[in-house]
Amino acid sequence: MSSIVDTNENRIKQAEKIASHPEQYKVCEGCGSIVVMRAVTCPSCHAYRFDLAAQRVVAQARDLAMRAANAVLATDLL
Fold first, then answer.
1. Of the four listed, 23, 31, 42, 54, which is most buried by Cβ atoms within 10 Å?
2. pLDDT tens-digit profile of 36-70?
3. Angle value at C-alpha 28, between 71 and 31, nearest 5 degrees
4. pTM of the entire structure?
5. What was the pLDDT predicted at 61?
6. Cα distance between residue 22 and residue 53, in whole Å
């Protein structure tokens, strides 16, 4: 149970970090992931279209922080 709480707390902290500096991030139009500005393609879905608007980045960060994680990570495949 504590790992779920830790994960939720980490997601909220990450969302706060992103929301405080939205100019460093962009939202993937393919899957909704938030990626760093220097990314050329999305590491999750390999899309190459992004929304750069700070308002969208902040809204997406808050949305992702409040829902359960559903991405498959490399550590999940071990």
1. 42
2. 999 999 999 999 999 999 999 999 999 998 887 77
3. 40
4. 0.79
5. 96
6. 8
- Looking up tokens 């980045």, which residue turns up? 57
Query: How buried is 44 (Cβ within 10 angstroms: 0-12 exposed, 13-18 middle, 19+ buried)?
Result: middle
- CA 73 distance to own-chain centroid: 13
Task: Retrieve residue 67's tokens.
Answer: 């829902």
Alpha helices in the chain (DSSP H): 2-20, 54-66
34 class by beta-carbon count within 10 Å (0-12 exposed, 13-18 middle, 19+ buried): buried
Q: What is the DSSP letter of 32?
A: -
Domain boundaries, the chain: 2-67
